[in-house]
Amino acid sequence: MTSATITTKGQVTIPKEIRDYLNLDTGSKVDFVIDENGIVKLIPLNIPVGKLSGILHRKGMKSATLEEMEQTISEGASDWS
């Protein structure tokens, strides 16, 4: 079993073994849920890219190819340099 200590500010460092298992990295979001048995669960909110497919689609919108997306990203990045 992996354990951690709560600081005086109520913070806890998630042990590396758990972060690796849940694919958590700096900036990752998590949720805390208390289930029907009173057990607290840590739920990672990192969503696989595949599950995001289509969420921005609007009726009549033309789909972009990967090459078009990369070109647009490159053009946008060059505006920052």
General description of the model:
With 81 residues, the protein is an alpha+beta fold. The chain has a domain at 1-50: Pemi-like Protein 1, Chain: D (Ribbon). Helices cover 28% and strands 12% of the residues. The chain contains three helices and two strands; from the N terminus they run αββαα. The protein has helices at residues 16-21, 49-52, 66-78; strands at 30-34, 40-44. The protein has a two-stranded antiparallel ribbon. The longest helix has 13 residues, at 66-78. The model has no long low-confidence stretch (mean pLDDT 84). One of its GO terms (molecular function) is DNA binding. Residues 1-47 form the SpoVT-AbrB domain.
Brief synopsis:
Helices cover 28% and strands 12% of the residues. The chain has helices at 16-21, 49-52, 66-78; strands spanning 30-34, 40-44.
Which percent band covers the strand fraction? Answer: 5-15%
In spatial order, strands of the major sheet run 1-2
Query: Percent helix among the residues?
Result: 25-40%
Describe the global form. Answer: elongated
CATH first level of the domain at 1-50: which class? Mainly Beta
**How many strands?**
2
Number of helices: 3
The CATH architecture designation of the domain at 1-50 is Ribbon
C-alpha termini separation: 48 Å
User: Structural class from helices and strands?
Assistant: alpha+beta
GO molecular function, one term: DNA binding
Protein name: AbrB/MazE/SpoVT family DNA-binding domain-containing protein
Pfam family, one: MazE_antitoxin
Domain SpoVT-AbrB: 1-47
